[in-house]
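Support request from a user on the community tier.

User writes: "When I paste my structure tokens into the form, the page sometimes reloads and wipes my input. The last time it worked, I copied everything first. Here is what I submitted, just in case something in the input itself triggers the reload:"
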């Protein structure tokens, strides 16, 4: 399904790892992908920079404070153009909120099990693998 450029919704996501190399994931509370695990993130609000949106979205969904770095990659999923940024966690307490029913750190085995069980949003595992940002733990 294609969408005209005028209906593209700019979104951001955060790719963050803890000190053990585990990847930060949230279980989506709402569609698209309700009930599935994904990277934290969401829509960029009008007048908001990508950096500000990443900081806001990760704080709202995970309770964590982050510093966004470089863009790791961009994907288009339906009308959503998602720019995923490398993030460094600087504080906060991991707590699900906003569009997240759960939040957790996922190691390589856990992420593989989520993929095998069909519990990840479409193409997340393949995309992270292709970008070489799978958990190292």
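"...and here is what came back when it finally went through:"
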């Amino acid at each position: 399904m294609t969408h005209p450029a005028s209906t593209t919704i700019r979104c951001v996501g955060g790719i963050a790892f803890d000190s053990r190399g585990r990847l930060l994931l949230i279980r989506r509370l709402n569609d698209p992908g309700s009930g599935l695990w994904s990277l934290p993130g969401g829509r960029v609000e009008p007048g908001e920079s990508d950096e500000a949106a990443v900081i806001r979205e990760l704080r709202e969904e995970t309770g964590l404070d982050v510093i966004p770095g470089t863009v790791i990659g961009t994907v288009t999923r339906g009308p959503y153009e998602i720019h995923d940024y490398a993030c460094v966690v600087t504080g906060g307490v991991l707590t699900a909120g906003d569009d997240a029913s759960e939040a957790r750190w996922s190691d390589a085995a856990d992420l593989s099990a989520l993929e095998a069980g069909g519990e990840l949003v479409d193409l997340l595992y393949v995309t992270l693998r292709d970008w070489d940002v799978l958990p190292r733990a």
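Agent notes: The reload is a front-end session timeout and is unrelated to the input. The two ends are 36 Å apart (CA to CA). Helices lie at 50-62, 108-116, 124-130. Escalated to web team.
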